[in-house]
Amino acid sequence: MELRAERATLRLAETFTISRSSEDEAEVVQVEVTHEGTTGYGEAAPIARYSESAESALEWLEDVQLGHDPFALEEVEERLPHGDRAARAAVDAALHDLQGKLTGLPVHRLLGVRPVGPPTSWTIWLGDPDDMARRTEKIASRGFKRLKLKLGGFDGLDVERVKAVRGVTDLPLMCDANEAWSLDEALEIIPQLDVEYVEQPLKAGDEAGPTLKERSPVSIYVDEDCHTLADVAECADRAHGINIKLAKSGGIREAVRMVHAARALGLGVMLGCMVESGLGIAAGAQIASLMDHVDLDGNLLLADDPWPGVQFVDGVQRPSDGPGLGVQRSGVART
Questions:
Q1: pTM over 0.90
Q2: How far apart are CA 265 and CA 232, in angstroms?
Q3: Burial of 304 (0-12, 13-18, 19+ CB in 10 A)
Q4: Which tens digit of pLDDT belongs to each residue from 85-123?
Q5: Among candidates 99, 103, 114, 43, which has minimal Cα distance to 283?
Q6: Are 255 and 231 in contact (CB under 8 A)?
Q7: Could you tell me whether strands 121-124 and 268-271 are parallel, antiparallel, or unpaired per DSSP bridges?
């Protein structure tokens, strides 16, 4: 198998803001794996929070040796170098895409899972309360069934942000503080929020995590605390659920392992994403049916998606029935 990789820039429709950063565009790395004239594609969405970048992904990919058999995923995985989970996820996605094209089947059928998962939430990024309410009103007609609010403004207005949004919508709400609160702040803020669950209120590894889980009236999900299968058991002490992202886990195979481990420990599971094109989102959509909650709106945040194929229908990000991941680069025929 031959591997190629190139950097791509995704332009957002609007500036996206969370507690620690804002961005107008995202750099990703797109991977091609070719076997006997057929090519599978995958996308790496590096996470700066974990010291990953397009540069580090490309450097990691230079050391990848895939071998000759696109179906020998265990052997390929054993040969991959350590580090860079986003680049690993791109290779994993490209191999699954390649397998699907070689067999004529969508990835979800190769995995034996249902094609359709829960509705995706739409992210209302961080702003002042009135701004977040106005942006909520703007998307009211787009068909979303759930909303995820980015909190953590470090200004004492997080409760007001949720109240402002609740004042203009009846949709189910969840929120993500992106590690912005202390234990005392979380215990003061969370009881005032009309939300289904709170994502990553404390810094990753905060010793107060188990205390917050015990005392919170609302379910706690962790994101920055949970990367791979090795993290799941410890997360059961500090959370009611975990946020699985392919860019953190290293791909579909590890994500599925994490789902089963979480279920065994009584944890809820959600599927998250980064800012990604349809190529990255398509890989997540293949396993969305395994999740309790889905936050898979990365491609919907873009000014233009260069990899169409994922269908947004009745609030759900539905994977294509086409072979592999079922997406193709705009203007380029699928191989």
A1: yes
A2: 9
A3: exposed
A4: 999 999 999 999 999 999 999 999 999 999 999 999 999
A5: 43
A6: no
A7: unpaired
